[in-house]
């Protein structure tokens, strides 16, 4: 009798009607089938055919995938991403969540770190492309580096300038090919520098006269319009503050600086033949920062951008798990004499292990599918060095050549890499609910 009543009661409950349940589930099933199941089955079928889709090639596309150098680079970069990025984000999320647990403005701090999640990866990629621009006038990172560098290192006086002729270039600078004896005069015309950038103290230059036991000379910018090449013209100005060395047998005998009119003098020289050298420090190009988006640094730069974006996600989940930890366990450890580090290491982290593992696996899934940041941040010239599987799949399928057979094979490989992590998360969620 009890069973009959229960059966009638269950039949009367609308939530247990299979027909109505199927009716409510039908839109979700259709959507899931059209957006997930059908593309997956079609990609698997398409991966066994050639680029045209007419000829069956079996596992040929998969073989080409594992022998293509660009795809192998993408595999390598994906391994770097999986090993580095999720672990760093999880650790940062744990550290920030623990450190901000007891402060008043913890919510504001976490909100600020979570804000990058509100921006699409495409927009974030554009932002970081500008942040790491090599030109210090546009790139924030290089602008800061140049500012710090120039505080501790004085920039050269005339970057890019060079003698017109008659000098041998070396690492030490420009050394005159002709020698000069005491009483001689040296003319040093320079080019490669803008007259508008000359110091305000620069004055018109004039030819120095010979002096006894002295070597005199003038350094000027030989760029006047309509002037005579290699000779001083009335409109030309000297280069003040330029270091000049006089050399004998490879050794520097004396050093001097040019005056406002570009003239210099080496007094009290002994008899003999000398060469004049302009040290390379006069003309060294200014420090312009690092080539962040070059082949060597582009992958670390993109990973750092992704870490900045995803750290807020990790903090939010870990902070939620941290708030659920029984405070009695933490206080008991402190009462027993444990230090804060011991409490963190032996109590907090073990109790947070399920949450940390879930966050880590979720980030691994996200990393394996990374596409937008690499596509936007990496310039076209170095995109091959920063390539990942998702980007390689898009380039092969829709780029030059349009081989959707190989692209479908890459899609299936990417799915097989992501599937274990997804299944692990689904199992964990089910165990937690049961």
CATH class of the largest domain: Mainly Alpha
- CATH structural fold name of the largest domain: MetI-like fold
Please work out how many helical segments DSSP would assign: 13
Sheet having the most strands: 5 strands, antiparallel
Please bin the fraction of helical residues: 40-55%
Structural class: alpha+beta
Family: Belongs to the binding-protein-dependent transport system permease family.
Subcellular location: Cell membrane; Secreted
Protein name: Alpha-glucoside transport system permease protein
InterPro entries: MetI-like, MetI-like_sf, Sdr_B, UgpAE/MalFG_permease
Short description:
This protein has 2 domains: 41-143 and 292-433, MetI-like (MetI-like fold), CATH 1.10.3720.10; 162-282, Immunoglobulin-like. The protein is 51% helix and 11% strand.
Question: Mind sketching the topology for me?
Answer:
Layout: H1 2-12, H2 18-46, H3 60-65, H4 69-99, H5 106-114, H6 121-131, H7 140-152, E1 162-163, E2 167-170, E3 173-176, E4 185-191, E5 215-221, E6 243-248, E7 251-257, E8 263-266, E9 275-279, H8 298-323, H9 327-335, H10 340-368, H11 372-377, H12 389-398, H13 404-433
Parallel strand pairs: 4-5
Antiparallel strand pairs: 1-4, 2-3, 3-9, 5-8, 6-7, 6-9
Helix pairs in contact: 2-13, 4-8, 4-10, 5-8, 8-10, 9-10, 10-13, 12-13
Please tell me about this protein's structure.
It is a single chain. It is elongated, with a radius of gyration of 35 Å. Helix 5 (106-114) runs antiparallel to helix 8. The protein folds into 2 domains: 41-143 and 292-433, MetI-like (MetI-like fold); 162-282, Immunoglobulins (Immunoglobulin-like, Sandwich). The chain is α+β, with helices and mostly antiparallel strands and 434 residues long. Strands 2-3-9-6-7 form a 5-stranded antiparallel beta sheet, with no helix packed on it. It has helices at 2-12, 18-46, 60-65, 69-99, 106-114, 121-131, 140-152, 298-323, 327-335, 340-368, 372-377, 389-398, 404-433, and strands at 162-163, 167-170, 173-176, 185-191, 215-221, 243-248, 251-257, 263-266, 275-279. Helix content is 51%, strand content 11%. It is built from 13 helices and 9 strands.
């Amino acid at each position: 009798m009890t069973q009959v009543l229960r059966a009638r009661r269950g039949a009367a409950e609308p939530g247990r009607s299979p027909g109505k349940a199927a009716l409510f589930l039908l839109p979700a099933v259709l959507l899931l089938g059209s957006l997930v199941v059908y593309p997956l089955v079609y990609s698997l079928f398409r991966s066994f055919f050639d680029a045209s889709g007419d000829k069956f090639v079996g596992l040929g596309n998969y073989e080409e995938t594992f022998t293509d150098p660009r795809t192998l680079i993408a595999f390598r970069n994906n391994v770097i991403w999986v090993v580095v990025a999720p672990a760093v984000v999880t650790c940062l999320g744990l550290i920030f969540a623990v450190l901000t647990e007891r402060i008043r403005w913890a919510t504001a701090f976490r909100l600020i770190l979570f804000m990058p999640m509100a921006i699409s990866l495409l927009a974030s990629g554009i932002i970081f492309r500008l942040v790491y621009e090599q030109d210090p006038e546009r790139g924030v990172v290089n602008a800061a580096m140049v500012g710090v560098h120039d505080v501790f290192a004085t920039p050269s006086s005339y970057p890019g300038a060079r003698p017109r002729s008659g000098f041998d270039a070396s690492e030490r600078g420009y050394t005159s090919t002709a020698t000069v004896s005491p009483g001689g005069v040296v003319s040093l015309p320079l080019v490669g520098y803008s007259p508008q950038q000359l110091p305000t103290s620069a004055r018109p230059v004039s030819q120095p006269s010979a002096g006894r036991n002295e070597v005199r000379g003038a350094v000027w910018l030989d760029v006047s319009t309509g002037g005579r090449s290699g000779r001083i013209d009335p409109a030309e100005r000297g280069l003040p503050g330029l270091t000049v060395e006089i050399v004998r047998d490879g050794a520097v005998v004396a050093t001097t600086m040019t005056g406002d009119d570009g003239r210099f003098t080496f007094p009290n020289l002994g008899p003999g033949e000398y060469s004049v050298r302009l040290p390379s420090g006069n003309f060294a190009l200014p420090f312009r920062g690092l080539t962040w988006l070059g082949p060597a640094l582009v992958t670390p730069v993109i990973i750092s951008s992704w870490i900045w974006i995803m750290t807020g996600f990790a903090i939010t989940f870990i902070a939620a798990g941290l708030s659920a930890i029984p405070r009695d366990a933490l206080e008991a450890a402190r009462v027993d004499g444990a230090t804060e580090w011991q409490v963190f290491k032996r109590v907090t982290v073990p109790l947070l292990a399920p949450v940390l593992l879930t966050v880590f696996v979720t980030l691994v899934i996200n990393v394996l599918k990374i596409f937008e940041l690499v596509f936007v941040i990496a310039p076209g010239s170095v995109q091959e060095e920063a390539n990942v599987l998702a980007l390689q799949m898009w380039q092969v399928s829709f780029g030059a050549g349009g081989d959707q057979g190989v692209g479908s094979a890459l899609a299936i490989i990417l799915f097989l890499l992501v599937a274990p992590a997804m299944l692990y998360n689904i199992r964990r969620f089910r165990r937690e609910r049961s």
